Input
Amino acid sequence: MAICLPSKSIASILRYDEHKSSTLVNSISINKANYAGQRGVIGIIGAGNFTASTILPQLQKIKAPIKYIASSKGLSGTTLAKKFGVTNSTTDYKEILKDGEVDAVVITTRHSAHAHQVLEAIDVGKHVFVEKPLALTHSELDEIQKAIQKSDKTLTVGFNRRFSPFILDAKKQLGNANVPINVVATMNAGFIPGDSWVHDMNVGGGGLLVRLAT
Output
């Protein structure tokens, strides 16, 4: 490529060598690390806001070995990999599933992808942590239930409210009496813009499902 920059130019012309081909890659190495024989190696599928603000900071605190982060376009994953010391960034999450050194997969993609990515991970023998919701349909849940019953791996869903100080205090106040109780709660769960993908029933499942899955 040649760049022409006249001294008083207001524009630039980029010329590319038409005969020189470039090789596209799905994965890049951000830093070197040896995971041979190490246990608890993690691969993260999804590089959105929740991964950046919650998942990665918490994993960083416990010095978890994170070998991969996958994002659909590559930029967000690579940015987070550099910030949090993740070894590899990839646009092909199947690279994570194929890697025998990866023991556990964290799934934080859009809701419509959760079920089939969980099934893929279970199928190749990975432990799975997936953000809620686990699935969007009953048939997806049935498939996951059948798969996990045949597996010796763990499947955990990120119902984060269970760890809320308010929920923990409420459980303490309610006590352990073995009697039925009826709880009616009204929540201000925050505004979701009307054009958000969450409201797309095929992708996000709708705001009601997301709130009920909290």
Q: What stands out?
A: The mean pLDDT is 87. The beta strands are 2-4, 13-15, 27-29, 42-45, 66-70, 88-90, 104-107, 127-131, 155-158. Residues 37-176 form a domain with the Rossmann fold fold (CATH 3.40.50.720). The longest strand covers residues 66-70.
